[in-house]
């Protein structure tokens, strides 16, 4: 395998890895450790039971930072790297045999191109999911604002 194919396969693998990291960061943004860091937790007794209470102004900061990293940094980077890997593979190389045909191993080329195609669709799929979530959240916020302002007053 020549250097160009190795680089394209490496870019695709790096893109998939960053995509998996994005999924992990997104899913862990809803854990107790993210919502309320340990230094903000305290135990409070309510109705005879000990419950965990969260105090402090930083309750949302960890969640929003993780969601921003996952959706706005890692997912586009994953899609970019997987697409760049496929594009680099498709660039014509100068290796031709005596008949003018490209000299490459058809089995290796088929497997690698299939893996890279799957990696590219993984990156594009993550981007699509982020776009759908952004549209749904925007619609929900707009509907909530419409409901608040169409009720006649803010506090009734």
Tell me the overall shape. Answer: elongated
Number of domains: 1
* Amino- and carboxy-terminal Cα gap: 70 Å
Note the main sheet: 2 strands, antiparallel
Major sheet: arrangement of strands: 1-2
Total strands: the figure is 2
Overall mean pLDDT stands at: 80
Q: Give the DSSP E fraction (strand runs of 2 or more residues).
A: 5-15%
Q: Residue share in helices?
A: 55-70%
Helix and strand element order = HHEEHH
Work out the radius of gyration: 24 Å
Number of helices: 4
Give an overview of the whole structure.
The protein contains 4 helices and 2 strands; from the N terminus they run ααββαα. By secondary structure, the chain is mostly helical. It has one domain (3-89, 106-150). Strands 1-2 form a two-stranded antiparallel ribbon. Strand 1 and strand 2 form a beta hairpin. It starts with a helix and ends in a 6-residue tail after the last helix. The mean pLDDT is 80.
